[in-house]
């Protein structure tokens, strides 16, 4: 593939972005209907920033909540190992930015990563002048990567994953994908399968590091909050958590739960905070007695469903439940992260659609830490049986903790890779 072809492909890509430029503001306004934070810090999305850094900068990009949580062990080690550097954490969503603030406070500078326009990414790089940049998981932005190459900023792709579906999509744009992957200073993939798919797309300088999400330690403050929530829910009542549910799943789950009429308390936590009121309406439409987590009051024994309408407390919810369903997996959303629940010791039920965490889910099921169900009716049936079987719960808890422990170590591998590209 020639340099001319690479330039032509990137020019065409940029022209398409320019045609989409007016729709950016429409999209931000549309999202702000439910989440007004989308109208904050808009200038940052085009490369205009107020924060200034006097120290050398290490830049880490984490799109949203899941990626930001996954950075915890890495950021902690970076803060300890490179105390003379300033960490700049970039995000794409307001929820990712809010999660960063909860986790790190003023230990890091947090801003939005600009849209992938040449003028915007160049302004970002020249404003912060990072000594090293890191992208998390599957963030391949062609103009950003090219700008880092031109500005001599080493750029790593960490915790990289590449599903078969994503690989097919990137392969259609080989004239963009191949040179972008080859311009990266290093790639650390989660699994050998991810590595193989990335190599097939043209990547080199590639190692397998494991998954940073295994290295996360449940925060003590969240475990203590879990005990508080458990008392509010009823110390002797069984609690089943539906975590990070997506649109369409709540209807299926609530209908199955109402039909089965279990004695257990259902704690329902939607993935996106802008949907809290929508999900509350779904609960009320089914005439299920509901309480809100935000009320911070003891839950009456007649309450059937608690709506988890709070941010940043997922570890506490896991700690307060006997077992949990991981959302995004009943319908084809690809599933959410099951590792956090297993790290707390909470047995996991998972639906049929788990392509976002395919390897972790497969291994967790094989090790007895998780069980797969095919639909909402089976989910509620298995949950009822499991909540009445103390021995099965204890066994799944032990298997989950062992599973997480045996897959830790990705952070140290990432730190070694970073050290090769970062001068102290």
Sheet of most strands = 7 strands, parallel
User: How many domains would you count in the coordinates?
Assistant: 2
What's the architecture of the largest domain, going by CATH? 3-Layer(aba) Sandwich
Q: Give the spatial strand order of the biggest sheet.
A: 3-2-1-4-5-6-7
Q: What class do helices, strands and sheet pairing give?
A: alpha/beta
In the CATH hierarchy, what is the superfamily of the largest domain?
Answer: 3-Deoxy-D-manno-octulosonic-acid transferase, N-terminal domain
Portion of residues in beta strands equals 15-25%
CATH class of the largest domain: Alpha Beta
Query: Could you say what the CATH topology of the largest domain is called?
Result: Rossmann fold
The average pLDDT value, as a whole number, equals 94
Percent in helix: 40-55%
Q: State Rg.
A: 22 Å
Number of helical segments? 18
Q: What would the principal axes of the Cα set say about the shape?
A: globular
Taking pLDDT < 50 over at least 5 consecutive residues as the criterion, the unreliable ranges are: none
Give the strand tally: 14
End-to-end gap: 37 Å
Structural summary, described in words:
By secondary structure, this protein is of the alpha/beta class. The chain folds into two domains: 3-210 and 409-421, Rossmann fold, CATH 3.40.50.11720; 220-406, Rossmann fold (3-Layer(aba) Sandwich), CATH 3.40.50. It is built from 18 helices and 14 strands. It has helices at residues 3-32, 65-70, 72-81, 94-104, 118-128, 142-150, 164-171, 174-183, 192-200, 220-233, 249-260, 276-285, 314-320, 339-344, 358-366, 376-387, 390-406, 410-421, and strands spanning 57-61, 86-91, 109-112, 130-136, 155-160, 186-189, 206-208, 239-245, 265-270, 290-292, 305-307, 323-326, 348-350, 370-372. The strands form two sheets. It has a seven-stranded parallel beta sheet, with helices on both faces. A seven-stranded parallel beta sheet has the order 10-11-9-8-12-13-14, with helices on both faces. Helix 11 packs across helix 16. The mean pLDDT is 94.
